[in-house]
Amino acid sequence: xxxxxxxxxxxxxxxxxxxxxxxxxxxxxxxxxxxxxxxxxxxxxxxxxxxxxxxxxxxxxxxxxxxxxxxxxxxxxxxxxxxxxxxxxxxxxxxxxxxxxxxxxxxxxxxxxxxxxxxxxxxxxxxxxxxxxxxxxxxxxxxxxxxxxxxxxxxxxxxxxxxxxxxxxxxxxxxxxxxxxxxxxxxxxxxxxxxxxxxxxxxxxxxxxxxxxxxxxxxxxxxxxxxxxxxxxxxxxxxxxxxxxxxxxxxxxxxxxxxxxxxxxxxxxxxxxxxxxxxxxxxxxxxxxxxxxxxxxxxxxxxxxxxxxxxxxxxxxxxxxxxxxxxxxxxxxxxxxxxxxx
Length: 342
What we know:
By secondary structure, the protein is of the alpha+beta class.
């Protein structure tokens, strides 16, 4: 899996390709359960999720019984693993596991808390469990980058968002002109910045980061939306990131091509970031994190809905490749055009 700094999470450099016969990860839903040195240290038959770091026995994965077992371990007030459990998480990956069920896993001691910033230790997670909705929350700003022609559609999209978030920023790809204000019937919380894209998506997002008023910022494109559950959880996840010293959170993106869910899922996008974070890369831009991927984690409960047409998919990669040769990720085109399957 490609991470916010452009590298791969620990499994990838030493791993073979994911085993397509295995089901998706029961935590993050990625089709990325693979052999790795980390998994082999537990048992030769174990596999690692290259997205969220879950370790699991291949036979248990194939049987489909892991989701029920994971739910059982999270059902009480204290999470801990039994010696014969066919899966393993430490504090860093336990945080993502709990979030996948709308929960918070709070490490119980200094050793467990230290593991949050030192991912993939051999120390099994022990954590107190409580609902995410009952945890602290911080305010979050929303930034949407768009073209002038997108404004008419954004009005309906941002109405429900404005009832939850109190700082909405739109960065429009056009030269600045005097006196530009949002239309009269738009929510008062929306502010607009006119700025030419000039083929540099990172610069456009960074302008939005600077424009935001809150310490945490969610970045979307005009063809992306978030639902009520994600909106309600954003502030809680941002506070959890603050508590763990993280700067960036990856959201699962559902790509819908002409309304059909694509097999390219969860398509993690690191779009919830502290305002001080800056993006890098003219296309497929990512947060530039001093500590690399260790400054981030995945929140599977936060979902971006991405609405695409087949015609757009077929021409998008070529356009991005022209903007930054070698970075167009042409391989994604086929995955986007393949319907989702478990």
